[in-house]
From TrEMBL:
UniProt protein name: Prenyltransferase/squalene oxidase repeat-containing protein
Chain ranges passing through the membrane: 377-396
CDD domains: ISOPREN_C2_like (cd00688)
Residue segments, region Disordered: 340-370
Keyword field contains Transferase: no
InterPro entries reported for this sequence: Prenyltrans (IPR001330), Terpenoid_cyclase/PrenylTrfase (IPR008930)
Organism: Streptomyces violaceochromogenes
Entry keyword set: Membrane, Repeat, Signal, Transmembrane, Transmembrane helix
Ranges for domain Prenyltransferase alpha-alpha toroid: 53-164
Length: 404
């Protein structure tokens, strides 16, 4: 999913400096390589675990058994306390106080490893860590201790549900994750009209965010990134007294936002022209399918079939995974997605799978194992800025801790 990283990207931009997308070089240096088990050939510093998890989850969803070494790479990224960082270049070095832990990466890893099976010890420890860093309002921020946001809280809910937990019973000071989400849901009427905000602003006000709303709908429904079309409920916006009603309200907001701009979401940075937001559109498709609003979901997935190829090729494995999950949610064939084989394209970004069904994956085993993780920072930030990823979750993936 675009699931949950653009706010962190903006934080990265603020720290790195005024990055100019036009100056970004998307081509890696021939002398630099990343672990052969890793999906993608761009700098994994901010999204290594995230994109690996999405790639593995998407492959499992379509019946592809990933390469064992790719799964093992993800397992070895876990810290001793159960958490995952965004990326650990040397997993033999123990995590310490300087390790930037990541609730989103941890939750994505839980969902992927649970789906793959056989990693109960890993997922149990990860869930234990997530529970330990739950905020007093019941939610989670991107990094432990950070203010709760819709995106992070929602993906943690998905991880809890995948691991067999009941999210409504995971409480801190009597507050559950759903309590946190309901506080981030906007009332009906006005510009927000049932949407979710990412976080309150400095004045405590909530602003509608389509990116966060897509995440919030899944979170309020208690589901993860892999969904089957749900049973449609009344789309009338009413006071969100329950998570189910908040999900319905959010879905209504997304439907209106998608229809307004030609069945896709738009994004614009300050001073830039509005442009299509492919990742968040894919996330919105998944959210609407989960809610049962299949009519708009199908229209938007058709739009993605026609328009998302260049974005996916530029963005890499997490983008292909997002599209596969959107296709799965709507019953669309990911092996013939606007004429493209998304499963094959995703497979070509990493090692050849153990079993691939109808897919012939282009292996990337020629990559040499390496701990290098810095060359792509400018490229990645530049691409994110060009892609117009919004403020909630990138679902190419959120790139850096908010407190950077």
């Amino acid at each position: 999913m675009n699931v949950r990283r653009s706010a962190a990207v903006l934080a990265a931009v603020a720290v790195i400096g005024a990055a100019t997308p036009a100056a970004a070089d998307p081509s890696p240096s021939p002398s630099q390589a990343f672990p052969s088990a890793l999906y993608g050939d761009k700098d994994p510093k901010f999204d290594g675990v995230w994109r690996q998890s999405l790639a593995l989850l998407a492959q499992d969803t379509v019946g592809v058994k990933p390469a064992a070494k790719s799964v093992q790479w993800l397992v070895r990224q876990q810290c001793a306390d159960g958490s995952f960082a965004s990326y650990r270049p040397d997993p033999t070095t123990a995590c310490d106080a300087k390790t930037m832990l990541d609730t989103n990466a941890t939750s994505a890893a839980v969902q992927a490893l649970t789906a793959l099976g056989g990693h109960d010890d890993v997922t149990r420890k990860a869930v234990g860590w997530l529970k330990a860093v739950q905020n007093k309002d019941g939610g989670w921020g991107y990094s432990p201790g950070g203010a709760s946001d819709t995106n992070s809280t929602s993906i943690v809910i998905g991880a809890l549900a995948a691991a067999g937990e009941k999210p409504d019973r995971v409480e801190k000071d009597g507050k559950s994750p759903y309590d946190a989400l309901l506080k981030l849901a906007l009332p009906c009427g006005g510009d927000g009209d049932g949407a979710f905000a990412f976080q309150p602003d400095k004045k405590g006000e909530l602003a509608a965010n389509a990116d966060a709303t897509a995440a919030g709908v899944l979170g309020a429904l208690g589901t993860g990134m892999v969904v089957e079309p749900g049973k449609k409920s009344d789309a009338t916006c009413e006071k969100a007294a329950t998570p189910r009603q908040a999900a319905a309200n959010g879905a209504g907001y997304l439907t209106a936002a998608l229809a307004k701009d030609g069945d896709h979401l738009m994004s614009a940075l300050a001073g830039a022209e509005p442009q299509p937001d492919f990742g968040n559109t894919a996330d919105a498709v998944v959210a609407l399918a989960a809610q049962g609003d299949t009519a708009q979901a199908e229209k938007s997935v058709r739009w993605l079939e026609k328009n998302s190829a260049s974005w996916a090729a530029q963005s890499g494995p997490a983008a292909y995974a997002q599209l596969i999950l959107a296709a799965h949610a709507t019953g669309t064939n990911p092996r013939d997605f606007g004429g493209a084989d998304l499963v094959k394209q995703l497979g070509a970004t990493g090692p050849a799978p153990q079993t691939a069904g109808k897919t012939t994956s282009g292996a990337s085993d020629e990559k040499e194992d390496s701990g290098s993780d810095f060359f792509g920072v400018w490229w990645y930030v530049g691409v994110c800025l060009v892609a117009g990823i919004g403020i909630g979750f990138l679902f190419t993936g959120r790139k850096k801790q908010q407190q950077l």
